[in-house]
Amino acid sequence: MALDYRKCAEEIVANIGGRENVAQAAHCATRLRLVIKDNGKINKAALENVDGVKGMFENNGQLQLIIGTGTVNKVYDEFLAVTGMSAATKDDVKNAAAAQQPIWKRILKSIGDVFVPILPAIVASGLLMGVVEALGKAIPTFGDTAWYAFLDMVSNTAFAFLPVIVAISAARVFGGNVYLAAVIGLMMVHTSLLNGWNVGNVQAINDFFGVTDGVIPTWNLFGNIHIGSYVLGSISRHGYQGHVIPVMLSIWLMCKIEKWLHKVVPEMIDLFVVPITTVFLTALATFIVIGPIFATLETYVLKGAQWLVQFPPGALIMGAVYPITVVMGLHHMYNVIEAGMLSSVGLNTWMPIASAANFAQFGACLAVGLKCRNAKLKTVAIPSSMSAALGITEPAIFGVNFRFMKPFICGMIGGAFGALFGAITKIGATAYGVTGIPGYLTINNYGLYTILLLISGGIAFVLTLIIWKEDVPEEVPAPMPKEETSSIQSNGADVTAKKVIVSSGGEIAKCTPGTVISYTEINDPSFASGAMGVGVGIEPEEGVVYAPMDGEIVSVADSKHAIGICDDNDQELLIHVGIDTVEMKGDGFTPFVAEGDKVTKGQKILEFDLAKIAAAGHPNTVVVLLTNSDDFEDIQLGEQ
Amino acid sequence: MKEFKYVITDEVGIHARPAGLLVQEAKKYTSTIMFVKGEKSAKATSLMKLMGMGIVKGDEVTIQVEGDDEEAAAAAIEAFMKANF
After folding, report:
1. Contact B47, B19 (CB under 8 A)
2. How many other CB atoms sit within 10 Å of the CB of residue A191?
3. ∠ CA(A571), CA(A577), CA(A579), 5° rounding?
4. Rounded distance between C-alpha atoms, residue A557 and residue A50, angstroms
């Protein structure tokens, strides 16, 4: 009779002290892994007798119940249903002990997780774009060359299609289908939509849509149902080039929708129902809700910014909040302000403010890059800061400053004072489009501009150096330097002098120093059942395996934890180190042989790291099974 | 002879323990059950040979069943593959 999963789950819950005693639950291929708050409330005897539980043990603060392949996931689902808990991954279970982080920290972490993998793409583009734009301004004739046009295209690709890159990365972080995410990202920069950079550009709007009023036409999906000035289901036909946050929100939502659909849609029609529904619902939400919210915010930001920069204190505020608008992706319409200033008074006083804000992020990012000891962070922070110095701040903000927050705030402070200085001295630019170092090409006063950059970048740099401290990862103590050969005390000849399996097929020697137990005592149902042949388990004293007989290596698992050997008498022997250690994917295992190698008894064939197996939460029993034991007679097991 | 193809979706492929279960299943039938991947092949009753094929996620294997109970054996192995790999 099939196992009653529900009953099994209910009995487990009853015997571990109820729902409130469970911190986390996950499962692997064969076991239910639980983090229990108070182990004293566990009724071990009763648990072992629950129908469906084949065994249990505690390890690394986890209670592991052996349920079995193909069954454990069903019991787990019922377990979640009974307890009302949500699914956790194994990593979650491992992290459960770590204190629950506040939500804003988790949001920041998500943004960082999405952005860090794509940094190579945008750092490359950011630096190249800064150089190309600067050259275009410095040498006016260069702007007309084929090289300029080509380099311009190459360098701005990553930014023009940023939503696609962000979408793919976000799908990996939030756990959705990356191809569906790519579709959503592409949709947000579709050529049927006006380029997001041109939203404030009347001429571009008129050219693109063939209209004359400079207003972006809409698609009204549900006709003309007005709610105040808002038309229900109205989509403004512009793209989201250069946007980051709306894309992350859309993909986060997409992943939620997709996961939910996978749960409720019958498997038979899953393949065509889930993708189409996911894409359709996400697209609707993106263009009708998420997009307009950001477009509306953008308009307010624009109006607010225009008003603020009329007075020096306003410039101070603008210099501070500028990077926040970059984070929100609301900075794309500032060109409108600059163009307006140039046409009305002939001087772009916005540029020094933006420049101060950007250069301050450069200063903060550079400070992180110089101060940090983490090599990986350094390689991210230094090039990102260079890009920021050239006026492209996304890599520095998303990849570094915003992730750690303190550098970002230091940057805001530096930017505020730089912007205030700019507003008081009334310097300005004669064109728009560049900030930071390339800003020299358009500024009307080199000396004051230099001071502005020094103020903003300098304050941010010094503050960051003082305030920001690198989080030293706690969990990674420096690995003990190990001397490969000398750490093994035993020697192959001594260990293999003892026999563990003797049959009509021949003798198989002990392969690892340690206590020998019968296969039936191995803490794993499929090994203990004899289904894979009979043999022994060895509780290892040392992480080494010697060849237990002369023969040929017929298989070495990709995950390096299992080796198969055949001899001339056709004895097929499996040596499997640890239980469930396939999950370690080879980490901690060093085989010295490959498939096809001839080995002689006593030769060292594998070393393994007992500490790593313990850390991964697996039993370390070395399983030695004569897999074709059916072919032999008079089998005697045990050390002799 | 019955023949069908199967693409491995299990994360770790045909490794020791599930391969052991597969052998157990295959031994229930008198038919010869062969696993073929590219140039490599193995009888489903030989755990060592199966593991030696190094079948991992994404591999397509061809399974050939020949013998008196081939209908039942092929159906059982196919169901087993779907459930475990």
Report:
1. yes
2. 8
3. 115
4. 34
Kindly state whether A523 is in contact with chain B, defined as any CB-CB distance less than 8 angstroms: no
Which residues from B are below 8 Å from A595, CB to CB?
Answer: 52, 54
Best of B48, B50, B59, B82 to substitute, by most chain A Cβ atoms within 10 angstroms, is: B48
Among residues B15, B37, B43, B49, the one annotated as catalytic is: B15
CA distance A31 to chain B (A): 14
Catalytic position from the list A8, A27, A28, A372: A28
- B23 belongs to the catalytic site: no
Q: Do B47 and A628 touch (CB under 8 A)?
A: yes
**CA-CA-CA-CA torsion for A622, A627, A631, A636, nearest 10 degrees?**
10
User: pLDDT tens digit string along B5-49?
Assistant: 888 887 777 777 778 888 888 888 888 888 888 878 888 888 877
**Does the reported pTM lie above 0.80?**
no
CA distance A92 to A86: 11
Domains, chain A, ranges and CATH? 5-100 (3.30.1360.60), 492-637 (2.70.70.10)
Q: Are strands B32-37 and B60-66 parallel, antiparallel or unpaired?
A: antiparallel
Over residues A527-585, the pLDDT tens digits come to: 887 777 888 999 888 888 999 988 888 878 777 888 888 888 878 888 888 888 877 87
Interface of B with A in 44-63 (CB under 8 A): 46-49, 51-52, 54, 56
For residue A59, the model assigns a pLDDT of 63
Write down the pLDDT at residue A88.
Answer: 58
The CA-to-CA distance between both ends of chain A, in Å, stands at 42
Assigned token pair, B11: 């994360």
ipTM: 0.73
Distance CA A608, CA A614 (A): 11
Residue A484: CB atoms within 10 Å: 8
CB contact under 8 A, B20 and A526: yes
Contact A636, A502 (CB under 8 A): yes
Q: Is the pLDDT of residue A456 over 70?
A: yes
Which residues 6+ apart lie within 8 Å of A558 measured at CB? A586, B13, B15, B54, B56
A446 neighbors A454 (Cβ within 8 angstroms): no
CB contact under 8 A, B48 and A576: no
Pair type for strands A62-66 and A55-59: antiparallel
- At residue A367 the predicted structure's pLDDT band, cuts being 50, 70 and 90, is very high
The edge-to-edge listing of strands for the beta sheet with B60-66 is B2-7, B60-66, B32-37, B40-43
Break chain B into its structural domains and give their ranges. 2-84
Helix and strand numbers, DSSP H then E, in chain B: 3, 4
Q: Would you state the pLDDT for residue A477?
A: 43
Q: Which CATH architecture has domain B2-84?
A: 2-Layer Sandwich (3.30)
Tell me if chain B has a CB within 8 Å of the CB of A370.
Answer: no
Nearest residue in chain A measured CA to CA from B20: A532
Neighbours of A98 (CB within 10 A): 10
Indicate the average pLDDT of chain A: 83
pLDDT at residue A411, as a whole number? 96
